[in-house]
């Protein structure tokens, strides 16, 4: 019959190995917890919105500070829409002038570009973000 004889150093090795595995397991659990907390933070941060109101204007900012909504009281809303209509008319006039200079007043290119601008501006939303050419809010 075989007898198993453990040397005292063998048991210390097993204990150190188990302690190492336990520390490794704790490290993995800590990393999982931090990853979960980071994911929850990211999700909550992306949903973050803050609102500011001043003199008839309410703005809503997203988590990056980008403007995501604008609400204007009626007198300001009407003034903004009127100014926007004037600017749109001037934009079409200047695009017409530049295109005519480049391609000729009676060219098909000038006609097509001007028509495209007029059509695009007819249905475009009246407010765009600073530095962007896409609407970010509809006036209410």
UniProtKB/TrEMBL annotation:
Region annotation Disordered: where it falls in the sequence? 1-20
Q: Under which name does UniProt file this protein? A: YbaB/EbfC family DNA-binding protein
């Amino acid at each position: 019959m075989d007898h198993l004889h453990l040397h005292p150093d063998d048991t210390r090795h097993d204990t150190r190995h188990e302690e190492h595995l336990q520390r490794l397991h704790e490290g993995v659990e800590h990393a999982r917890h931090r990853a979960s907390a980071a994911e929850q933070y990211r999700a909550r941060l992306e949903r973050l919105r803050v609102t500011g109101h001043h003199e008839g204007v309410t703005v809503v900012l997203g988590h990056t500070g980008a403007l995501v909504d604008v609400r204007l009281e009626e007198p300001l809303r009407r003034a903004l829409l009127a100014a926007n209509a004037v600017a749109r008319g001037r934009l079409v006039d200047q695009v017409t002038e530049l295109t005519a200079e480049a391609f000729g007043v009676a060219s098909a290119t000038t006609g097509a570009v001007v028509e495209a601008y007029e059509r695009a501006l007819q249905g475009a939303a009246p407010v765009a973000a600073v530095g962007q050419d896409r609407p970010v809010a509809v006036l209410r």
